[in-house]
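Record 1 of the preview.
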Amino acid sequence: MDNLFQMVIDNLGHNPVLLLFLLLGLGYLIGNVRIGGFSLGSVAGVLFAGLFFGHFGLRMNPGAQAVGFALFIFSVGYQAGPRFFSAVREDGLRYFALSLVVAVTAVTLVVLFARLLELAPGTSAGLLAGGLTSSPTLAAAQNAVREGTVPLAEGWTADALVGNIASAYAITYIFGLTGLITIIRYMPKLLGLDMPGEARAQEALHTQAVPSPIITTRCYRVTNEAFTAYTLAELRQRYCERAPVLRVLRDGELLPVTPDARLQLGDILELVGTRKFFTSGIQEIGPEINPDWDIEKNRDTAQVVVTNREVCGRSLGELRIPQTFGLLVLEIRQMGVNLPHSDNLVLRKGDILKVIGPADKIDLFGEYAGEVEREISETDMVTFSFGIAAGVLLGMLSITVGGIDLGLGTAGGLLASGLIIGYLRSIRPTFGRLPEPARWMLMEFGLLLFMAGVGLRAGGSILETLASSGPMLVVAGVLVTVVPIAVAYLFGSRVLRMNPAILMGALTGAMTSGAALSVVTKEAKSAVPAIGYAGTYAFGNVLLMIAGPLVLLFT
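->
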């Protein structure tokens, strides 16, 4: 049996493609296992799979890990670009301040623990990344060591420091993940907060939030003369503001769908709306009929990316999308997070609206608001490739101050390049096209490729790290997770006076934890916390990535 296992290990060692995708597959299986409603997720799953195989001496080619690192960091910057710069200019100050409090508190704690516990060089960065469950922190710290941006301690090699970072990260990550989720779940109860009530209070300020509806299309023949007294605008206002009229047929001819148009007996009216809308009284207009045409052909669904300056900063209620364009808004996503649907929700650059209605109306709305993403089926590989290359070159630039070389490093260069290209893309939609599915794939694959290398590298030294400073390192990791959340909550509630539901979501964004956000929204029984998450997520990614190399300089 031992010989068989050793043969498997030997074959994996000689077949890097098999090893990589075996790790990814096992990582997803491990991450999807649910225990008491909790699952580790794909990142933790790949990390633990890597730790197991790394213990037997398997390693990943550094070049492959570097490619994963570049894909991940650049994609993070690209995704954050449209929102990051606009947030800085507009209402991002309080979200930036909250993210800064989390980062500064965590770095201060880690520097303190590194000196008190006399941690081995590099361990501090792993402690910071694991305690905050921040992959950008880990990636930036390891990359800074490999590039020589951080001076090496006497008698230590770059490989040894990278190993310490990976091992400390693996040891502290498990509580960082489970602990953060546990804190977020029980913190409101300990503080006596009524999360559903706080979310409802916030919703009341911006009208009632509406979940993503189930949409259907129906046709009616107008036989009730009472309905001929209304214009289409009055009809919509009387029955449902968000239910657009797709088309009106009179004597076999299509009529222009304008707000002041009036119905006549015998007209055929095609409507799109929620099931609730079709029980609101509109069915009294006349009998429902099966039209001679395929109603699905007149109904299209697409995503519209908000980039137009005239739309950014305006609310859904102001835009009156159903009334003006005859479209129904199904979802609003900001930084990849679904936001509550309310009339007073203010749109920001880079927001994505999923709409349904006639294809020509979607195109018209796309021209007005920004662009229709269904038209983008290909990635602009020229911009994507040169963007990553420019990021690497930017990271190579440095200036010497007092005998010390200062520069962004590869991580900072890639992030800056991604931010700039993502922002320019929001200004000029034809530039740097990277559809959302492709962006998610590149970022997810890049991260897991990088994490597979981290797990394999840490697997060879994790037992030694545990033996030398394991128990105290675990305690330090617990405090690095707990204390920044507590300090940031006090700052957000006492100084910034934020709504508790939004504040709890903002805390998860500052620590870039999507898993913790899902817990908050479940506790609040509302999507309101996602507003806070979207506000701090971009800042959290940038600040925590900077914190990785920074903490190495002070320890």
